[in-house]
Amino acid sequence: MAHGEPVAQDAACVVDVAHHSTRHIPVGMGPEGIAVDPGRRRAFVSCSRSNAVTAVDLDQGMKLWQAPVGREPIPLIFDEPTRRLFTTDARSDTVTVLDADTGRQLTQVGVGEYPAGLGYDPGLRRVFSGDTAAGTITAVDVDTMTAVGTVPAELGAGSMAIDTVRGRGYCANFMAASLTVFDPATLRPLGRIPAREGPCKVAINRVTGDLYVAYSLDGLVARISLETGAVTGEFPVQQAPVGLWASPDGRWVYVCNRGAGTISVLDARSGEESHRITVGNGPGDCVTEAAGRLLVSNAGSGTLTIVDRPWLPGAPPPEAHPAAGKPLPEFALPDMRTGRIRTTREWAERKYVINFFASW
Amino acid sequence: MWESVNARAEASNFAAIWSMDGTVLLDETGEYAARLGIRGVPTNVLVDSRGIVRGVGLTAPDELNAAVDALLADD
Lengths: 360, 75
What we know:
The complex is a heterodimer of chains A (360) and B (75). Chain A has no helices and 31 strands. Chain A has strands at 20-26, 31-37, 42-47, 52-57, 62-68, 73-79, 84-89, 94-99, 105-110, 115-121, 126-131, 136-141, 146-152, 157-163, 168-173, 178-182, 189-194, 199-205, 210-215, 220-225, 231-236, 241-246, 252-257, 262-267, 273-278, 283-288, 294-298, 303-308, 332-334, 341-343, 352-356. In chain A, strands 1-28-27-26 form a 4-stranded antiparallel β-sheet, with no helix packed on it. In chain A, strand 10 (115-121) and strand 11 form a beta hairpin. Chain B is α+β, with helices and mostly antiparallel strands and 75 residues long. The longest helix of chain B is centred in the last third of the chain and has 13 residues, at 61-73. The model of chain B has no long low-confidence stretch (mean pLDDT 87). Chain B folds into 2 domains: 1-38, no CATH class; 42-75, no CATH class.
């Protein structure tokens, strides 16, 4: 029996051994970061273009509330002891703190310029803001909701992962092709790891003791041993990997391919891609919830996708893009600078490249 | 595309930051991208002189360079 296919249809029972995207829940404009409250079976999604956080009931698959935060919230952390949510608001230069049960805003904490990343150490009772334009890391105490210090990083400081076992923090410096290593307790910088261009996201597999780095410009994920600091592999995924999550059992690493609308599922033992999951447009972040389902935020669709049994393969993807080999559909679109409508006729009999981008 | 709010202003700002001097068209609703089956960004679409789509995706620099070279070499 091949993966992703049921047994013969005239059998006494049908065994489904595939993953399934079971829900696509509208949550707001430009959803990015996701956090989970396992006790109350809720997910929280930061909606960057709505300037808000949306709470979702994971069992009913419906929105519970939406609360305003600062401008362009990207990552999101849930602190269970205080039952608070922390977002970094990239265009407000703030961390907004919400009551996770009601959405009531508790405070906003000033951090460095364009905070686009967030790390979390529950034992130290801190979150860490990656201040991308400032090139710094700001530590915020989650109990007092105050900034307690900064760590110098480099330009593009953003995504963060905290190794609570070894007491080290890792910050990806997107514009500096490096990772900053720091002590999350003393806020001392400990060193710098040279990286490829454009390290976009970092995540830790606590079971295997590995740090994963997603390189959105190169379409690959690197694995680094937390014990030795050695790069132990680089694994191709699809276009623009910007999100990473290691399953709690350490067995799988899920990669959000923003440029392809898919999740690459990496086998943590080999590092190789096991299979892909088709989700919404422009996926940016993913996490697993207590039952093992994968939650994916789709910035281009404005949805949260829920995937059952994501560790199982599904139907194989098509070999070629459906548009390849076919005539380009005609367009009539306004020029950004002049407002004049431009059509495909202007480029007839020419060879050209159309780049689709969103200004995130 | 997928900008949802203040698309022209956001795209203009982005183009200025990254020194994008070429033609920029606005697909504010994402409808044209949907017609092409574009599901993520960034995505490159290569079109030959007959108006046929020759490649979709191609975001890694080496991949894009090879595809453009092949397109230019094709008569």
